[in-house]
Design goal:
With about 325 residues, the protein is of the alpha/beta class. It has twelve helices and 16 strands. It has helices at about 40-50, 120-125, 125-140, 155-165, 180-185, 200-205, 215-225, 240-245, 250-260, 260-270, 285-295, 310-320; strands at about 1-5, 15-20, 30-40, 60, 65-75, 85-90, 100-105, 110, 145-150, 170-175, 190-195, 205-210, 225-235, 275, 305-310, 325-330. The structure holds NADP nicotinamide-adenine-dinucleotide phosphate (NAP).
């Protein structure tokens, strides 16, 4: 089958369009005919080799973490899905590869696609939807009446996180640039800070939760706006010892990770704030709950651009500009 392939870890190296073997579904897998695939900054980071210490794929491998499509094959243990189901997924680490015509995915990672949206919109959701869910629902336990700051509200994670936080009943502040102010307000943001001429840490205070997806300076400033007992959750690093443990890293890497986050953990502790790094996980059950929210109209996907499959490298280059509003998707069928 045709696929976009990483032949070697290298910064900015274009993916090779070529042939790869047909995936063979295992007992617990569904075989999905891919109609659309979503792109993420994680794709570039994996290709660049930035995650080699944590997740190692042996080249040549197919890139891509988000998929929407139709079930065309099932393993003998599969009970949750049948042939012809429209599904979407963020396949688990170690089994990615959605920039292709087909993929075999563990049924535990898959959910029925929302009925009310198309394949391209569906493919934009899994990774960022699960990230927002795992940060705000699972980890922060965000509640009605609480205040949350979501950085980069116009990005892939931000556009879903704002809508989810509003649904949970929180007051939402977000950072974005002038051009995206209307977008984040439409998504429900109560307080919008233009990061180009305003300093969020001078404006906000007493926040229960901050979701950080930006740089170290933003992370440190975020501490200033959180009340004692609040939480600082970062998806852009630095990784923390819990993450190292969950990933089963060796002793040396665990020490490296401990040192990487020592500074922010110390600063957080001094202010009575809990710092944690989140690395999202594939989860079909949670994705199913996101499906329900989409079909109720609570969460609306924001898709900036749809590229044809053969322009996957252009789509990835667009993601790498860092200026995407919502998500970028490639369409196969
Ligand atoms: N750990 C995890 O599990 C996990 C999961 C998902 C994502 N991530 C990471 O989180 C980061 C964000 O991911 P994403 O998919 O949301 O990225 P994205 O969609 O590529 O982010 C682009 C958006 O970021 C905004 N932005 C850029 N600089 C900003 C700043 N200084 N302040 C406020 N907004 C800014 C841009 O808005 P303007 O054009 O207005 O600047 C743009 O809309 C990436 O590093 C990604 O790898 C981690």
């Amino acid at each position: 089958m045709k696929a976009f392939i990483v032949d070697r870890y290298r910064k900015k190296e274009p993916l090779r369009y070529g042939d790869m073997p047909e995936p063979v579904p295992g007992q617990d897998d569904v075989l999905v005919e891919i109609h659309a695939a979503g792109l993420n900054p994680l794709d570039s980071k994996i290709r660049d080799g930035a995650f080699k210490a944590f997740i190692r794929y042996r080249p040549p491998f197919i890139l891509g973490h988000d998929v929407a499509g139709i079930v065309v094959g099932i393993g003998s243990n599969v009970r949750r899905f049948k042939l012809g189901d429209e599904v979407y997924a963020r396949p688990r680490d170690g089994r990615i590869g959605t920039f292709a015509e087909r993929i075999a995915i563990d049924q535990a990672d898959v959910a029925l696609k929302p009925r009310t949206i198309g394949m391209e919109e569906a493919a934009s959701i899994p990774l960022v939807g699960l990230t927002a869910w795992q940060a705000l629902v699972e980890r922060a336990g965000l509640e009605k009446g609480q205040k949350v700051l979501i950085h980069a509200g116009s990005g892939g994670v931000g556009t879903v996180a704002i809508q989810l936080a509003k649904h949970l009943g929180a007051t939402v502040a977000t950072t974005t640039s002038t051009a995206n102010m209307d977008l984040v307000k439409r998504l429900g943001a109560d307080i919008v800070i233009d990061y180009r001429d305003q300093e969020f840490d001078k404006i906000l205070s007493g926040y229960d939760v901050v979701l950080n997806s930006l740089d170290g300076a933003t992370l440190r400033k975020s501490l200033e706006v959180i009340r004692p007992g609040g939480r600082l959750i970062s998806i852009s690093g630095p990784p923390d010892p819990d993450f190292a443990r969950e990933q089963g890293l060796n002793w040396l890497l665990r020490q490296v990770v401990r040192l990487l986050s020592l500074g922010i953990r110390r600063r957080a502790t001094a202010r009575g704030v809990r710092y944690s790094f989140l690395f999202m996980q594939a989860n079909g059950n949670q994705l199913g709950q996101i499906t329900a929210l989409i079909d109720k109209g609570v969460i609306r996907p924001v898709v900036d651009r749809i590229f044809p499959f053969d322009a996957t490298n252009d789509a990835l280059a667009f993601v790498e500009t860092g200026r995407v509003k919502g998500k970028v998707v490639v369409k196969l069928r």
